[in-house]
Amino acid sequence: MYTYVDSKVYILLVYILSRGVSMKAGKMLFSFLLVGVLAVAVVASGCIGGETTTQTTTLEQITLKVIGPWSGAELDAFNEVIKEFEAEHPDIKIEYKTYRAEDLSTILPLQFESGDTPADLIFMWGWFIADMGTKGHVMELGQIINPNEYVPGILDTVTVDGKIYGAPFTAAAKPGFWYRKSFFEEHGLTPPETWDEFVKLLEQIKQIPGIKAPIVSGDSVGWPLSDVTEHFIMTFGGAELQQKLINGEVKWQDPQVRSIFEERLVPLLEAGYFSDPIEWTSAVELWWKGEYALYFMGTWLTGMVDDPTDLGLISLPGVKAMVLAPDYFMVPKYTSHPDEALELAKFIATEGQRIHVGTSSGKLATWKEVTMDDYWEPMKDVAKVVANVESAPDLDDSVGGEWQKAFWDQLKLLWVQPDRLDEVLKTLDEKFPKE
Fold it and tell me: What keywords does the record list, in alphabetical order (predicted)?
C-alpha cells in the first residue's frame, strides 16, 4: 500500500540521481536517508505499517447521587457547595434530588433491607441515621471527621456506642427576637442588656402609634410558639433543664419550670406585649411593615425579608443556651462508589460548610474551623451570639409524637388565656409519653 513515507523515499531517490552523484555514493547516501526517514515514520505513526494513532488519556467520570430537603433559594445555596466540590473533583458529577424526610422515613428502611439505596449520600434526621447505623445499613464516618473540630454535643445525635454514623452540615439556629435596625433608629430604641431593660423596651414599643403589639406571635404550624417558650426555658434554666424536660426527668409542674412561666413569660402575655397567634408567614409581612417591632424566629428569616442587612437581633438577656438544628447526612453501605461518597461526605462536613455560610442560606457552621470572616454579612452578628452559648436540642422535635401536637395546642391556649397556666402545665405532664 502506498504511504506517505513511501512517497518521501521516492522523492529523495530522484533527487540524488538528478544531482549526478555516483551510484556507489548515491546508494550509501540513500541508505542513510532511508534509515532516517523510516525512524521518523515509526515514531510519528506509533505503529508498524504507517497507520497514524493518537494516544490520549480520558478521565473516567462517575456520578454520585445526593438526596436532600432543599428546593428554591435553599437549593441555590447548597448548589454553591456542589459546584466547588465538582470543580475540585472533575472525575465526579453530583446529581441532586429533593425528598421530604417524612417520605424517606418509609422508603429507606425497605430499600436498605433489600441491600439497595436511592442515593450515595442522604440528608436525614439524626435519630434516623443513628437507628440505621445500629442496624448495619450506614457507613461509619469517624474515619473522615474529627469530633474535636465540631460544636460540642453536635455529634451526639448520630453517635451510638462511640461509633459515628452521620455527620453534620450547617445548622439553623433559633437565637432570639429579630428587629429592623431602621425601625429602632427611627424611634430611638436600643437593644436591652438586662431583663428589666427588656421589659422597659417592650413598654416603650407598645406606646408607639400604629404598633399593634411589641412582639408578633407566629403560629398555624405550632412550632413558632414552642420556639419562643424554649428560648425562655434555656435562658433561665439552661441546656440542662431543656434536656431534662426532653428526657422526662423534670416535670412541667416542677417549681423551677413553673417559675419561668409565672415570673417571665406569663407576665408578658398578660401585659399584651405579645400579639394573638398569627399565621407565621403572614406575620413576617406585618412585622416588616412596622405593625409589630419584634419577631422570634429562626435564622432562616434572613432569606425571607427584602433587606437582610436591616436585621438586628435581641436574645433574652443572660441567655445560656440556644437550639442549634443541623442538617445531618449519612452514607449508605450500599453505595456503588464508597470511596468517592466518603470524599464528598468529608467535603460537605468541613470545607463545604465554609462555602455554605458565605451564601444567603441563613445557616451557621457546626465545624469550628469556619471563621467569622467566612460568613454572609447579615449572619455575622448571629454567629457571634451563638458562639457564646451552649447548643441544645429542639425540645418538641426531640419528644415528638402526639405530645408535640399537645404542646403546640396548649401553648396556643396559654397565649390567649395566660390565666390557665396551671391547666396547661398539668396537661403537658399528663400527655408526656410514658416509658
Answer: Transport
With a CB cutoff of 8 Å and minimum separation 6, the contacts of 218 are: 224, 225, 277, 278, 279, 280, 283, 284, 295, 296, 297
CATH of 62-171+325-390, one of 1.20.1560.10, 2.60.260.20, 3.40.190.10, 3.40.109.10: 3.40.190.10
Task: Tell me the whole-structure pTM to 2 decimals.
Answer: 0.74
Tell me the sheet residues that pair with 67. 97, 122
Q: Is 377 helix (H, G, I), strand (E, B) or coil?
A: helix
As a whole number of angstroms, the distance between CA 303 and CA 300 comes to 6
In Å, the largest CA–CA distance within the chain is 126
Looking at the DSSP bridge assignments, the partners of residue 180 are 311
Distance CA 302, CA 424 (A): 33
How far is residue 141's CA from residue 282's CA, in Å, rounded to a whole number? 42
Residue 140 in grid coordinates: 461509619
Q: Cell numbers for 98, please give them.
A: 429533593
Superfamily in which the 176-314+400-431 domain is placed by CATH: Periplasmic binding protein-like II (3.40.190.10)
Res 268 pLDDT > 60:
yes
Evaluate if residue 307 carries a pLDDT over 80.
Answer: yes
Helices (H), 220-337: 223-247, 255-260, 266-270, 280-289
Cβ–Cβ under 8 Å, residues 235 and 319: yes
- Strand 121-124, strand 321-330: pairing: antiparallel
